[in-house]
Amino acid sequence: MAIVNDLTVDGPWVGANKAGRMTGIRLYSLAYWQDQGIISVFQTSGGSSRRYLEPEMKVLAALGADGPPTLYNVRDYLRGRTGNGEGGAGSDAKAAKNAEMDTTPDLAEPDVSQGAEFTHTLASLLRGQKIVAERIESLRVRADAEAGARGVTIECRRRPDDADRWWFTWGGGVWMCEADKPNDAVVQVKAALRTVGPPR
């Protein structure tokens, strides 16, 4: 985002809470977008608070027409900036080529990206609890109490009887909790791991 807008990394930098207020984007989404290399982040050390580039946050805020911008909005904006920056037929051809080469699934299905963000957040929270968590697909996490132990699989799906909101489910399709409540999912996963048996 900074590169295509010719922004410097000199700052100012703002804390995560202020970045969330400026853009309307939830903090787990900001963390996911940072991990995807879309936005800039600054930390003085591995465990320190994340700070975001304020000019980038202003650009993000402007992308949300009827609410916070989505990952689809942002990637579409970035493709437009990199493909049409110079104008003219050559730039149009470049944009078409970029669009043809971009086969990222969540661009074809923009709603999938939100589920991927929820899944990413859950995996990060589980690792913070010293649980071995591996994303085996964009919407699926495998969790084990320790390496080689029996584990559980969690998926992120839309729930038709709840206005198509994202929910976490167990691997067998049993509904667990709303995906925007990842801490509730962590509690259930930890309880399940205590009952699935000893290491194989």
Describe the structure.
The chain folds into 2 domains: 13-102, Multidrug-efflux Transporter Regulator, Chain: A, Domain 2; 110-193. The chain has 8 helices and 8 strands. With 200 residues, it is an alpha+beta fold.
CATH topology of the largest domain: Multidrug-efflux Transporter Regulator, Chain: A, Domain 2
End-to-end distance: 46 Å
Order of helices and strands: EHHEEHHHHHEEEEEH
| Structural class determined from secondary elements | alpha+beta
Q: What is Rg? A: 19 Å
Summed over residues and divided by their number, the pLDDT gives a mean of 77
At the first level of CATH, the class of the largest domain is Mainly Alpha
Dominant shape = globular
Share of helix, binned: 40-55%
Counting DSSP E segments of at least 2 residues, the number of strands comes to 8
Beta strand %: 15-25%
Domain unit count: 2
CATH architecture of the largest domain: Orthogonal Bundle
Strand order of the largest sheet: 4-5-6-7-8
Please summarize the sheet with the most strands.
5 strands, antiparallel
Low-confidence stretches: 84-111
User: How many individual helices?
Assistant: 8
Protein name: Transcriptional regulator
Features of the shown structure:
alpha+beta; Transcriptional regulator; three-stranded antiparallel beta sheet; 8 strands; Multidrug-efflux Transporter Regulator, Chain: A, Domain 2; five-stranded antiparallel beta sheet; 200 residues; 2 domains; 8 helices
